[in-house]
Amino acid sequence: MYYILDSVLDMTGSVLAAGDTVDTPRAGPVIEVRDLRMRYGDKEVLVGVDFTAAAGEVVVLLGPNGAGKTTTIEILEGFRVRSGGHVLVLGTDPADGDEHWRSRLGVVLQSWRDHGKWRVRELLAHLGAYYKDYSTPGRARPWPVDELLEVVGLTAAADTRIARLSGGQRRRLDVAIGIVGRPELLFLDEPTVGFDPEARREFHDLVHRLTDVDSTTILLTTHDLDEAEKLADRILILTRGQIVASGSADELSRQVAGESEIRWTCDGQRFVHSADDATGFVRELFRQHGDAIGDLEVRRSSLEETYMKLVRAAEGSA
Questions:
Q1: How would you class 104 by CB atoms within 10 Å of its CB: exposed for 0-12, middle for 13-18, buried for 19 or more?
Q2: CA–CA gap between residue 286 and residue 177 (Å, rounded)
Q3: What is the DSSP letter of 204?
């Protein structure tokens, strides 16, 4: 959810109000998108986008700048009205989403407008209070502040004013704000920008905790392909307003024609070979040399190589 602290408004301009408990999530996909279209004047930004996301799934949306990623996410969040197509998020058309529905979402932006005089604990307690009336038996809201601080690694900075946080600490706070209401669906836009390697690993652990323990569905955009490969259950590649590929990193690499590189040692010598059928080659290698084979390594195309090939192929055929 998006907040301007002076009046606690969401981006639609409506004041968050107390209400009845949120309906329990319906069975079926958390996100369901069919033939999603978006047009600005004569320009089609999205041209028949189709995908789904299940409970507890991490879906990473990749694509070059201008591909339509931001537009897609803003439609799913309910902050942009689509030109056409079928979209359901948590069983509701985002264009009709009310405050009950919004309480079930979390958003982490690339940057967040904050008030530097607030202390970290005070801010999270203040924002969390607005979720209290949307708590359900299956999902207590908000997240207890001290527990949340520990989860995002800000316990030591709990009483620090926001203006004095480091860049990495501010990013952790962004994440904490996004999950303070224990969302069922979390949107993450370049979440680890400014993180050092240790903080990035801790964030990855947090993502796995959210999906494994709370069954939170996560839709994430990133330009860090290594991060995408580590986190994604499924990767969507969006270019020219269309999903041109969908699958795990391994499944996508199999879609791209190309040879695998096999490296091994035998009797103290190192060898490198490329083969279309890596499994068959390795099987024959062991049949011929048996235990003399050592340091075997099979390398398929990296996600970066796969991504570039798929995007170039899609843009070349357009």
A1: buried
A2: 54
A3: H
Q: Specify the pLDDT at position 18.
A: 40
CB contact at 8 A, 191 and 231: no
Residues of the chain with CATH 3.40.50.300: 31-249
- Residues whose CB is less than 8 angstroms from the CB of residue 217 and which lie 6 or more positions away in sequence, other chains included: 30, 31, 53, 54, 55, 56, 57, 58, 59, 184, 185, 186, 211
Q: Look-up: residue for tokens 């995908």?
A: 51
Q: Which residues contact 233 (CB under 8 A, 6 or more apart)?
A: 57, 58, 59, 248
CA distance 71 to 69: 5
Token pair, residue 219, equals 């839709």
Instruction: Kindly report the CATH number that applies to the domain delimited by 31-249.
Output: 3.40.50.300
Residues in a beta bridge with 218? 58, 186
Mark 210-244 as b/e (b = at least 16 C-beta within 10 Å).
bbeebbbbbbbbbebbebbbbbbebbbbbbbbbbb
Query: What are 223-275's pLDDT values in tens digits?
Result: 888 889 889 999 999 998 999 999 988 888 777 656 678 999 998 899 998 88
Structure tokens at 146: 């001290």
The predicted model scores a pTM of 0.78
